[in-house]
Amino acid sequence: MQKHKLPHQVFVVIVGCYLLVSCNSINNVENITSVPLPVSQEVRATETTFATNPTLAIHTPFPSPISKLETEIARQRVIKLFESNNDCRLPCWWGITPGKTKWADALEILAPISLKIDPYSPQKPAESVYVNVVSPMADINIYGSYLSQGYFVENNFVTEITLDYNFDLAEFTYFKPFIREYGIPEQVYIHGYGEPQLDTWPFEIALFFPKQGMLLEYSGSPIIQDDNLVVCWDEEHFPVSIHLWKPDQTLIFDEIISRYYVPDSTDLPPYRSIRDATINPDHFLDGLNNLQKELCLETPQMLWLSQK
Fold first, then answer.
1. Would you say 215 and 239 are in contact if contact means Cβ atoms under 8 Å apart?
2. How far apart are CA 206 and CA 188, in angstroms?
3. What pTM did the predictor assign?
4. What is the helix (H) or strand (E) element at residue 207, kind and residue range?
5. What distance in Å separates the CA atoms of residue 182 and residue 243, rounded to the nearest whole number?
6. In DSSP terms, which residues pair with 132 in a beta bridge?
7. What value, to the nearest 5°, has the Cα angle with vertex 259 and ends 107 and 102?
8. In whole angstroms, what separates CA 151 from the centre of its chain?
9. Phi, psi (deg, nearest 5) at residue 123
10. CB 244 within 8 A of CB 93
11. Which tens digit of pLDDT belongs to each residue from 161-173?
12. How many CB atoms lie within 10 A of CB 114?
C-alpha cells in the first residue's frame, strides 16, 4: 500500500478540470543548460518563450525569452545546487525563499536548468498557483532521469516549495547533519502502514519546524520485536520529502501535512506524535541532543496496521 503526496494527486485532477486545452505549459526543450558556471567549452543556448494565457499571466508572470543551455551542463548545475543550496539556509531552497522571492526572480534560477515548467490554475481565484518544475537529474543511471519540484505562487511571490525528494545529493539535509545545523525540531511525528502478510512496514519520521517553515520526512526500515516495531535513523539517512513555506505563517502539523499527503485509502493510520506512539519517547528525544549513536524508537505494531 502506498501513500502519495498532495501536489501529485490534487493537481492531476486540476489538470483535467481546470487547465485550458493548451495546458498552459512551457514547451519541452531539448537543449538545456544552466545558469552561468565556470565552463570552458562553448555552450549552445536556445531562446524559449513561456506560453501563458491571460488568466494565468495575472497570477504567474513568465518573463520571455529565457535562455536554455545543454542538458549535461544543466545536470552539473543541479549537482552544484544540491551541494551548496546556492549558499542559503532553509527554508531558502536554491536561492528561493518562500515569502521573499518573487516568481520572476525564481525563474531566473529555475528556467535555465528546467525541461519544463507547468503552471496549474487554482480552483478558486484566491488560491495560489501551483507550478511544477522538472529538471534533468544528475545521474540518470542512479537517480532516474528527472527531478520534479513544486512551487506555490501567490501575488507574484513564491509562498511554498515542495519536493517529493528521494535523492541523496543534498548532504546538508541528511538526518544528523541537518539536526546539528538547524537544531531540535519543535515537534516530531511518525507514520507507518503495515501489511504483515506481505512482511512490509513502510515507515517515516517527520521533523516539524513550524516557526522556521520547514517539514522534512525521513524513511526507516522497522525491525519486528515481539509486538513492537523498532525503527532507527543514522548519519546518512536522507529525506524522502521536503516542504518549505513562509516562516511567518501560523500552521499546525495537521494543517501543513494535509497539503502534501493524500492517502490512497481511508484504511491507513494517521500520523501520530512521537509522544503518543512510542514506548519511550524521552529516550529518543534525548538522543537528538547526543547524535553520536544511532537513534532508534520503539512503537506498537497495532498502531500501524491497516484499519480494514
1. no
2. 6
3. 0.76
4. strand 203-209
5. 15
6. 118, 150
7. 20
8. 10
9. -70, -35
10. yes
11. 998 765 677 888 9
12. 26
